[in-house]
Amino acid sequence: MAESKRESKGPILGYFRDKSVIVTGASSGIGHDVALAFGEQGAKVAVLARRRVQLEELAKKIDKAGGHALALDCDVTDRARVFWSIEQVKEAFGGVDVLVNSAGLLITDDVEHARPEDLRQMMEVNLFGALNTMQAVLPVMRKAKNGNIVNISSLAGRRGVSPLGAYSATKFALVGMTEALRVELFNSGIKVSLVMPGVIDTPMAHTALKRDSLKAMPTFMAMPARWVTWAVLAAAAFGLTEVDVPPGAAVAEKLASLFPGVTDALLSVGTRLMQASSDLMSGGGARPEDKAKK
How confident is the model at residue 222 (pLDDT cuts 50, 70, 90)? Predict the structure, then answer.
């Protein structure tokens, strides 16, 4: 699985032309593809991430595609830096129409052996990072009485699976916070959406699937990042409450929650079979520290 090397074919001006868009976690993976897609629509795109070099390269692609890019190196866990970045966007673009929270961190481990510091680190990025950006843009959107916030969560935020227990906890938290914010902003003109992808072909997933605990998972199950991008564009354009990738996946998980005992048993058997396959593939070696970053 390699990050898409798809090159823009030139301006495809569309619905988001001249809209002001912020994308976090834009240096690679889903965030990179989402930011480029908005650029192809002719949007003004502020790309936020920690890796400046990658952001500059992305900004050039966005400008070439017909958009207008602003690259801001920003760690979403640094609240002061986040608020400073949003001020830069306001000055450059005049406002904020769309916020896409794509920054994420995945550290795999079973709950029994999960390190508290790993969970804490994921919470800082996956939950508090999203909180920081949302609180920074909401005053701007409230003043305009318009805006779209799209939070990219995960199907692991609807059903806990091993060895993603701690990661699932962060995504469950993001789902709950997003749903609460949607209620708070009802009838305000600001729409809040959830995009819920499964396994996506990104550097983060690629690294995770190399670990012994997930090595037996078929790589063909990973979906292209562009599938998530389409979901984000649809959510932002139509103010959709929730978009699953693939469609209907979260519905299946919600139905499974009606029979938790049966679901737990099936997942337990599947997990054990996958672990047994991983042990055979790895020769039964010691369990490594399973870390992957987007």
Answer: low
